[in-house]
Amino acid sequence: MITILKERFMSFNGERSLVVAELAVDAKTDLPDENGVDGRVISQGTLAWEIGTGDIYGFRSDGKWVNQCTGEVYAPDE
To answer: 3-state secondary structure string, the chain?
Structure first.
């Protein structure tokens, strides 16, 4: 499950909002791809807190998440 804790509107991407957000997820497998948050496009710099482990992930411009403690890269669509 994904919860949007906070978001900042950047611009429009077609008919969808491009946002930088702070998210909470139950597990890293819940991390969205760049098009995966309730009709929003997420931007580089979005952060996600994985509640199950306490890890923080940062969203890169190439659509991948990076664990901020270990450097592990996670791609939701792979």
So the answer is: CEEEEEEEEEEEECCEEEEEEEEEECCHHHCCCCCCECCEEECCCCEEEECCCCCEEEECCCCCEEECCCCCEECCCC
Tokens in use for 15? 């008919």
Question: What digits encode the pLDDT tens for the residues 37-74?
Answer: 888 999 999 999 999 999 999 999 999 999 999 999 99
Which pTM value belongs to this model? 0.91
